[in-house]
Amino acid sequence: MFNKQLFILIWWLIAGISTEIVTISDCKLGEELNPTATACTMCRPGHYRNSTMSECAKCAVNSIAPYRESILYENCPKCSDGAVADEPRWQCIECRIGTYRSSDLTVCTGCPLNTYASSTGSSECAECGAGTAANSLRTGCDKCPVGEYRSSDMDTCSKCATEGTEPNVEQSTCVDIPTCGPVNIPNSIVSSDSEEQLRGTVVHVTCIDGFHHVGTESITCQGSRDWSHDSIVDTARTCQRLGEIK
Question: CB count, 10 Å around CB of 167?
Answer without folding.
Answer: 11
